[in-house]
Amino acid sequence: QRFKQEQWTRIVCKVKHQSGWELSGGISQILQYTFFGADAQPFQAPSAIWLHHLQLMGHHELNAHLGSQICLGYQQTNAPNQLPLAPLYASGMMYLQGAVFKNNLLVRCGIQGRYMASFESPAYMPALQNFYISKTGFKSSSFPWIDLFFSGRIRPVNFFVRIENILFGILISYTLSNEGLWREYFEFFLYILDRKSTRLNSSHEWI
Question: CB within 8 A of 67, min separation 6: which ones?
């Protein structure tokens, strides 16, 4: 089967305020949207898909050392069976930053979280490394995802440490169905990310 090229048309309007807030909204039309069906075979949507979204973002630095970011959003599509989306989502971050050891070490540490409202989410197939529309009707539950992070710079070395999903095993428990599928889960990202993990990264700048 020969597929046509996928086409996106977007109209977005943004309003910014000097206080650090930004309100944006828009509408998108998607033609020949390509997705994987229940049998993991590629398909194209027979008609145009419309996507509406409204988003509020804010970035504030209370002083030279304390800052925060927040994002609240709403989105809706006329074809949830082909393009499933969480209707409500949110993310936020609060961090401390500064220079220590006679300004030789620049550090930033904080907490970051994200949230999605419950929706009929796609399943993930590791072999294809892609999502597909599930016959079993996976549904995510509303649950926050919380990370802790710490980064620093000692010229010429940058390093970063992140502990992801610190709430796993604390506020939710998992059960398996007879078919061996997760009956309860809070985000389909669990298919491609560890349920709880620590990530380390470092880089070196050569002068």
Answer: 59, 60, 61, 94, 95, 97
51: tokens are 């996507």
The beta-strand segments (E) located in the chain are 7-16, 21-31, 34-36, 42-44, 49-61, 66-77, 88-100, 105-116, 119-120, 123-125, 130-132, 139-140, 145-154, 157-164, 197-204
Coil, helix or strand at residue 46: coil
How far is Cα 65 from Cα 69, in angstroms, rounded to an integer? 14
Q: What is the mean pLDDT of residues 91-104?
A: 87
| pTM, entire model | 0.75
Residue 191's closest CA among 135, 118, 122, 100? 122
